[in-house]
Here is the input.
Amino acid sequence: MKELVLMRHAKAVPHTVAQGDHGRPLNGRGHRAASIVALELRRRGLRPDLILCSPARRTRETLDHVLDAYPSPPPTRLEPELYLAEAERLIDRFRQLEADVGSALLIGHNEGLAEAAILLATTGEPTALASMRAKFPTGAVAWLRLPVDDWADIGGRSRGELVAFIRPRDLGTEA
Here is the structure.
């Protein structure tokens, strides 16, 4: 079994010409939501072997909150190709993960992130699946359990179970 956790960056300030899309920071609500969601992941026992992150400012700031939640932060890779990546590109990246990675966390962007979660999660609690399919808000997390021993086997016929769909509003905060 492999675990894959897909986290959309928390709420960011609106896009301006001066900062560009890549340079958008989190807003105040986004910082609070990212911290609360990260702590909830740790509380639920998530300890990723590897974190992959888009290099955009809003994803890196979300990553900072995730790293702060762990006394010994997991290894992290900033990967430019994850910036605004489509679902198939993300799934291809997951297929390339090293065999010794049992649990991976990706911090990225919609629409590709939500589409990847929907493509990979075919079972799970019906209400959580419906919520995830309806809207994948900023700061939300889809935690998947994949019935494979090798990352190369995900997708296709190897679909997973949605273990949890966590939204900031479910934890008493808005993203």
Summary: The chain has a mean pLDDT of 93. Strands lie at 2-8, 50-53, 76-78, 103-108, 121-124, 141-146, 160-166.
